[in-house]
Input
Amino acid sequence: MMQKLYRSEYPGEFVIIDTVFSNGEKKQTREWVNNPIEVKSTSRRACCIAPGEDTETFPMIRLEKHPGGLLGRDRMQLYATETLWKKLNSDFLIVQDQYNLNEILEAGYQNDHIVYTSTKLCIENPGEFYLIPYGIRLLSPATALWLACFDGHKEIFMFGYNYYDEDEKIVSQIKKVMDTYNDVNFYHVTDNISPELFRRCINCEIIGKRDFVTRCDI
Output
């Protein structure tokens, strides 16, 4: 059962960095990791972006340079996943694939961007990446959605979430996030087929890319 959790109530957490078995006893070394991020958003709007069909021909620079109207009141914070760091600079990047992380390290992208990854990969690369809070174990697109909710956004646009197999694990994970944060309005942006599980969510609306551009003034 997924719980509603929020960054505003998150001081940090203990992380197990080493486990040793001695004389039949398990001894763990734990280290406290503070909450290093304060998320400020005037619009409480976010866009979670996965590398799906709908993003392939879309000019991503329009999302990156989205001004958000007068004084940035409607600006969306961007939560991108995996290889999309090569296409746009997002506010937050979620990467849980070792190969992608190696490329990021080689390019030095993490030096001036917030890159989230798993506890294991944070420990293996000390000081380079940000810890996904509470060790949430979801695939990257679902993690991005969860983080946007965790950060307090109330309108979240899902772009590039092109999934067609109703039994696919990622579809059920995304549905679970939407069900848990039932006070958030989700928008599945697609010109293709939206999964039946998404359409069943009373807090999820299916919109096309043109409507997305108009609503968000992109």
The chain has one domain: 43-216. The chain has eight helices and ten strands. Residues 43-216 form a domain with the Rossmann fold fold (CATH 3.40.50).
